[in-house]
Amino acid sequence: SRELLARSDKLAAVGQLAAGIAHEIRNPLTALRGFIDLMYQRARSNNRRYLEIMRGEVSRMEAIVSELLRLARPDRPQFQQVDLVDLVQEVVAFMSAQALLHSVEIRYEPGTPSLLVQGDPNQLKQVFINLMRNGIEAMQPGGSLRVRVFQDGHVARVEIADQGSGMSPEALARLGEPFFTTKEQGTGLGVMVSKRMVADHGGELAIESEVGRGTTVTVRLPVAQSAED
Ligand code: ADP
Ligand code: MG
C-alpha cells in the first residue's frame, strides 16, 4: 500500500541520515580521544579518574557509531535463487540452542516442501534471526515459537508467531523506529534493519500483536519467476 511505501521510504531516509551523522561524528571523536590521552599523561591522579570516565564514554560513542555505519552500509546484496524452506529451516536449527536457554521450543510447521525466491541468503538469514530472536526474548516463562513457510499465489510467506508479552498499540506503532527498545541490552535496530532488508527484496514485513497473547510477524516476498506456476 501507499502508506507502507511511504513508511519504508522514511526508514531508508532515516538510515542514510544516521550513516551521515555517524560518519561526521567519527573524526571529532578521534580528536577527543587523542587529547584525553594527552591530558591523562600530564594529569594529577584526582583528575585522572575523570579522564578515565571520559575515555570510557568516548569508547561507547565510538562503538555506537561503528555499529550504525555497519548497519547503514551493508554489503551489496548478492541476489540469487534461494529456497526459502531450506533457508528458514537452517535458521530454526541455528536458533534452537538459544531458544532452549529461554525455555522456548521452536516448532517448524511444514507448509510446502520448497519455495524459491530471488534474494541474498545472508540478508534473509539475518532477517529471520532478528525476528526469531525477538520472539524468543518476548517469551519470559518460555513457550513455543511457531514458524511456517507457505506459498500464497505469487507471494512467499514466512510466519513467525510467539506466545510472548505482545505489544501495546503504542509500542507497535513505534516498532521499527531506530533505537526503540524496551530491553536493557537492546539496540532497537533489529526490526528497522529487517524491514529495510525485506523492502530491498521487494517484500513487506507485517506485525500483528496483542498484549498478553503474543506477536505474529509475517514476511512476504515475491515468488521467483520460474516457480510461479
Ligand atoms: P531490540 O530487540 O534490540 O530491542 P528490535 O528492533 O528487534 O530491537 O525490537 C524493538 C522492540 O520492539 C523490542 O525492544 C520490543 O519491545 C519490541 N518487540 C519486537 N519484537 C517483539 C515481539 N515478538 N514481542 C514483543 N515485543 C517485541
Ligand atoms: Mg531484536
Automatic annotation (TrEMBL):
Residues 20-225 form the Histidine kinase domain. This is histidine kinase.
